[in-house]
Amino acid sequence: MTQTLGFAIFGVDWQLIKPFIVIGLAFGGVYALQGVGLVVLYRATGVLNIAFGAIGAAGALIAYYLVSHTSWPHWLAYTICVLFGGVVNLAYGMVFGPAFARRDPLVKMMGTLGLALILLGLMAWRAPAGGAFARFLPLPSSQHHYDILNTSVSLTQIIAIGLALAITAGVSVFLRVTKLGTAMRALANDREATAMLGVPVRRVEAAAWFGSGILCGMAGLLLPDLLTSLDYSALTFLVIASLAAALIGRLRSLWATFFGGLAVGLVRSVLAPMAASNYGFWQEISKYREAAPFVLAIIALLYLSRRRVVSISRTTT
Hints:
This protein is mainly α. It is built from 14 helices and 4 strands. The longest helix has 32 residues, at 14-45.
């Protein structure tokens, strides 16, 4: 039995699974990066921005055009992609944020859905989907590969995981020790009371919109390289996995969001080779791997809500 587990897992060769683990962790890092941006914006403004994927995809298309059709330096195109996310997010927040400030969270979320549909329409107009898979936005880091545990790992994959870890740690410290971070946390608790204390609410919200947009632009730059295709529709809807990571963190905990993103990416990726498993059960499960983000989010929410009910009952008794 030990020998079987050493070479195969659920009927699939371990050597076949290892690359999918690397790919899953890399995608999980990007999901965590977007998830942290979602959580920061939600905590500061109460807006769950589901246009993150569309904003990142639009920035990636702009970078692709600059790299492929101009003589601009590549690093400048990549920088524009990242800044595009921040600027578009900030513009939306400054124009529509005040109008949605006192609305229900569902109304705020549907407003960002409108932004996502507008960006999708513009991308379909300027970059027809027929040539989506012919577009590729490689990063210089994709040319560098390292052998880790007998598995080839690209520098882009390492950057995706490392950047998500660094951003999560940095944002956590920022929210705790800086005046702006403290203001963001206070704004999430009570907007009116925070304004009465003299906190510049609009300025704090602007920082949240711009900062989360920068994270969105970073994710939009990394994902086409990891996907090996600049398919803007696929990039747009990958926000679902990031949303699942944010829900695992209950839209509050950055570290839970980080580990949730890694878990979502890992499960989605590892289920792919299970289609070749000798076990019929895993073959069937692999067909539904796209539902993995929702399943993990539901399990996490049910478990966390159970712990909350138990703690409340203990307090009342």
